[in-house]
Amino acid sequence: MATLGKYQFPEIGLSESIELGKKIVREFAGEVSRQGLARSLDMSQRGGAFSSRLNALRLWGVGTGRSRVRVTQDGLSAVAPLSANEGHRARMTLARNVLLFVEVSNRLGDEPYGIERLGVLLEELSGAGRVNVARRLTMIDRIFTEARPYLSLDNSGYSAEESQAVSSISSNHSDESDPLEDQENLRYTDNSTVIQGRRDTGVHSQRIELALPDGNVSLPETVGNIDAALAVLWARRQLVVAEELKDGRSIPTPPRDFSSPPV
Fold first, then answer.
1. How far is CA 147 from CA 46, 136, 179, in A?
2. Do residues 57 and 63 lie in contact, with contact meaning Cβ atoms separated by under 8 Å?
3. Residues 33 and 22: beta-carbon distance below 8 Å
4. Which residues pair with 132 in a beta bridge?
5. SS3 of 199, please?
6. Burial 152-181 (b: 16+ CB within 10 A, else e)
7. Whole-number Å distance between alpha carbons of 83 and 185
8. pTM higher than 0.85 for the full model?
9. Would you put residue 206 in left (φ > 0), alpha (ψ -120 to 50) or beta?
């Protein structure tokens, strides 16, 4: 695990770690053994490259566990967000798990910086010597630069370009273009989830209703929306299964047609 003085930091960027979390959700329904993940990546589970990926997954908060790797709640929100805003907020939460980057961002603010200034700042924050900082400086600069938009002091985390893009998405939104876009209140909890069907009058008369303790979602009944809902619920099922197995409870076998997540 990479360290600089008292700080730990990931050697793999946030986006790459989220992509690894996405692989775990898509191919293993959110949880996989260390050995199985290494095999799927065609890596040695004892190799440094694989260890760096696992350590980054844990440091960012995308995944947890050692012998078995499980995607976290925040990781799931970043991997399979139900709206652009939810995905962005999840990345903000994950970025703030790396204390070194939070401290650097707080000191730099929104000002541009040169790599020499970053090196001096890292020396002051970590107490590490100049040689140790110099060896890691290029890598830290690259990974911090990627995460920096999500560490903004104004708590929005949006750069000017991102804000414009989000505004454009919101203004062009319709049920047909992206029915998931406005579902910002959906969260995954350990409480039961109820799926209901409702018939209304209008073009999209048949709808899917997801009723959760902290928010409701209403989506037009389309094949894409059904697949999206099933993928999210299946990933959530695997997380609940893990918790119930820890408590010694038996888990019912899913029906044959639902024995794997939707593609």
1. 28, 17, 29
2. yes
3. no
4. none
5. strand
6. beeeebbeeeeeeeeeeeeeeeebeeebbb
7. 10
8. no
9. beta
